[in-house]
Design brief:
InterPro entries: Glyco_trans_2-like, Nucleotide-diphossugar_trans. With 95 residues, the chain is of the alpha+beta class. The chain folds into 2 domains: 44 residues, no CATH class; 43 residues, no CATH class. It is built from 3 helices and 4 strands. It has a two-stranded parallel sheet with strand order 1-2. Strands 3-4 form a two-stranded antiparallel sheet. It is globular, with a radius of gyration of 15 Å. The two termini are 27 Å apart.
Length: 95
């Protein structure tokens, strides 16, 4: 879900050969509208949010999906976070 970005995100997304990835652009309306629209357009079993200023560890999504699959009564899964500087150095961790 692209909320009015001027970055070449559509070009980047279209370079992936995975047809499970769908790109949708809208005029900027804010994060909550973009997330709600994305949820309405979603067809998968799970929804995960990754904002443009966020990074995931390589195994983050796999671990969350495995946890969700093992705990089917859960409706929401959160997690901790690390703050990093522009060089990628960890400056704060919250669990």
């Amino acid at each position: 879900m692209d909320d009015g970005s001027t970055d070449p995100i559509e070009t980047i997304v279209s370079s992936f050969s995975d047809n499970r990835i769908h790109y949708h652009w809208q005029l900027n309306q804010g994060a909550s509208v973009a997330r709600n629209t994305g949820i309405q357009l979603a067809h998968g079993k799970y929804v995960a949010f990754l904002d443009s200023d966020d990074l995931w560890y390589p195994d983050y999504l796999k671990r969350k999906v495995n946890f969700a699959d093992k705990n089917p009564k859960l409706v929401l899964i959160g997690g901790g976070c690390c703050y990093i500087d522009e060089s990628g150095n960890q400056i704060l961790q919250k669990n």
